[in-house]
Amino acid sequence: MANETDSSLSKEQRILRIVKKTLTDVAKDTYTPPELRHPLSIETINSIRECLSLISARETELAEEQGRPSTSKPRFIDEPQDTVVVTLDTGGSKNKK
Predict the structure, then answer these.
(1) Using H for helix, E for strand and C for coil, what is the string for the chain?
(2) What angle separates helix 11-29 from helix 42-65, to the nearest 10 degrees?
(3) pLDDT, position 5
(4) Best CA proximity match to 55, nearest among 25, 23, 26
């Protein structure tokens, strides 16, 4: 999530953050391989998805209201966090005419 400290967030933002974390923890803790029946009902799974969607939308609204548009995006666990800049050599096109 964001790099902001909890003290810089409003009460609503802190609530949204902890509810989102709790819902995603429930999803992780109840992960079931595809060949097995999931312990949560389809209705509950869809409700969790809907809640997470509403939380994300509200977080985006709050960020925009505060003048800091959200630039966060989901990342894979193994995805590198740092950006690498690569310079490409055009193969000596300086002197070609």
Answers:
(1) CCCCCHHHCCHHHHHHHHHHHHHHHHHHHCCCCCCCCCCCCHHHHHHHHHHHHHHHHHHHHHHHHCCCCCCCCCCCCCCCCCCCCCCCCCCCCCCCC
(2) 150
(3) 58
(4) 23
Nearest Cα neighbor of 56 from 40, 72, 68 is 72
Residue with tokens 């312990």: 39
Residue 55 contacts residue 16 (beta carbons within 8 Å): yes
pLDDT of residue 73: 64
Distance of alpha carbon 49 from its chain centroid, rounded? 13
Q: Whose structure tokens read 């999530």?
A: 1
Low-confidence ranges of the chain (pLDDT < 70): 1-6, 69-75, 81-85, 91-97
